[in-house]
Amino acid sequence: MRGLAAGNWKMNGTGDSLSEIEALLAQHPAPACDVLICPPATLLARMAAAVQGSGLKVGGQDCHAAASGAHTGDISAAMLVDAGAGHVILGHSERRADHRESDAVVAAKVTAAQAAGLMTIVCVGETEAERDAGRTLDIIASQIDGSLPEGTDAARLVIAYEPVWAIGTGRTPTNEQIVEVHEALRRQLQDRFGTAEIALLYGGSVKPSNAAEIFALPDVNGALVGGASLKASDFGAIIAALEAAA
Ligand SMILES: O=C[C@H](O)COP(=O)(O)O
Predict the structure, then answer these.
(1) Among candidates 190, 178, 192, 184, which has minimal Cα distance to 220?
(2) How far apart are CA 50 and CA 35, in angstroms?
(3) What ipTM goes with this model?
(4) 125 lines ligand 1 (CB under 6 A)
(5) 50-60 pLDDT, tens per residue?
(6) Which residues share a beta bridge with 49?
(7) What angle (nearest 5°) sits at the alpha carbon of residue 46, between those of residues 55 and 199?
(8) Which of 7, 27, 31, 91 has the fewest other C-beta atoms within 10 Å?
């Protein structure tokens, strides 16, 4: 399956930051893997215009489960599509923590986003306390069960495994820990959807210096990158590592 290097800019970036996209396009005019940037919503339409006709895609970082209505500050899936998005990240641990998003809320968003035609990148991952208690695989299996609603379209699904304790900390799991979780995810998704074609991304402190090693692991089909996606030079090096791993 084609690898996916996805960048999540989180709450970073203004109009000036679009120069990083121009630099990335100059470095990777025709990437041999899928490349996605999810900027803040304020930049989505401008970034979509900037990457038009290139191999680079843009996506949202979240959407509301409702199609429209009285939800101040929220954005619907159709609005993301209208702004040029083809993907949306759902259930990121920062949304789960900052906005108390439950698995059921994430599941409702998956239904709405897929109905609007978006590829959905659903995030799962354990906290450090859960890992220390030996509950990692149970937590992740339960997040997958709860966050993927009946009727989920596997062809519009990507899963990102992001250990909460590895996000933005510079710490990463061991290769064995990543493989253990990705193998469990692969089995669970194969059992439920009857396909091994769902891309599994690893996320959490991916950077140019560790990307090649992570991409060489079985059942790792790419990465969801936070901090290192903000600079074209760093994200470009991660894209190159994924291209080389194919
Ligand atoms: O969505 C991205 C992840 O939360 C990873 O963030 P990070 O690469 O800054 O650790």
Answers:
(1) 178
(2) 14
(3) 0.99
(4) no
(5) 999 998 999 99
(6) none
(7) 40
(8) 27
Annotated binding site for substrate: 8-10, 168, 205, 226-227
Question: Taking the model in full, what pTM does it have?
Answer: 0.98
Residue from 124, 161, 206 to probe ligand 1 pocket by mutation (most atoms less than 8 Å from CB):
206
- Supply 96's token pair: 């789960």
Contact assessment for residue 105 and residue 147, using Cβ atoms and an 8 Å cutoff: no
The pair of structure tokens assigned to 78 is 């159709």
* Ordered structural domains, the chain, with CATH: 4-245 (3.20.20.70)
| Residues 89-126: tens digit of each pLDDT | 999 999 999 999 999 999 999 999 999 999 999 999 99
User: For ligand 1, what atom is nearest to the CA of residue 89?
Assistant: 1
Q: Which residue has the tokens 């469990």?
A: 184
Q: Tell me the helix, strand and coil percentages in the chain, rounded to 5.
A: 50, 15, 35
Contacts of 237 (CB under 8 A, 6+ apart): 208, 211
DSSP of 47-115: HHHHHTTSSEEEEES--BSSSSSS-TT--BHHHHHHHT-SEEEES-HHHHHHS---HHHHHHHHHHHHH
The predicted pLDDT at position 29 comes to 85
| φ, ψ dihedrals at 16, nearest 5° | -60, -30
Residues labelled as active-site residues: 92, 162
Residue nearest to atom 3 of ligand 1 (CA): 226
